[in-house]
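User: structure tokens for this one?
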Amino acid sequence: MEDNNVSLRQQLLDLLVKYAYQEGEFILSSGQKSYFYLNGKQVTLRAEGALLVGKLIFEMLPSDTQAVAGLTLGADPIVTAVSVVSAYENRPIPALIVRKEAKGHGTKSYIEGPILPQGSVVTVLEDVVTTGNSAMLAVTRLQEAGYRVNKIIAIVDRQAGGAQLYQSKGLAFESIFTIEEIQKQWRQNNPPTRG
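Assistant:
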């Protein structure tokens, strides 16, 4: 399985470099300025990208995981992909979507998806981690609902403080890629032109 995961990982890296990574001047959701931008949805909403993400993250889930969850909108395709892959692997894991604001009608809930028993163990998923605040909001909402969060898994760690935030809160964190890996591959694919 390890060799297969290396191949899947390379395929996902190629998709991220081709479709998700750009250089220029951008303002991130954290309010920070950046000279590069990574739009994970350009990959997670493609069929082949969703399948790769689902397979790779499913393999990274702690064995006690009873559900996967993430903050809408970036995590929506990821939690869905992992849940679908889990069904194919005969270990069905439900997906939960955490709202930024409570629903204004009906149950007024922050969390969409199956209602799980109190104390259920949930792994939080994220596309790109920068400061870590998006996933932390999901963690807080899940804990307030009575769930236990065992880990945060991201597709890409921008290495901008998120990992340190999670560590300070006692949360395990892992990413498939660091931003350095994506930038290295991007530069290999886009060598500077000599004038």
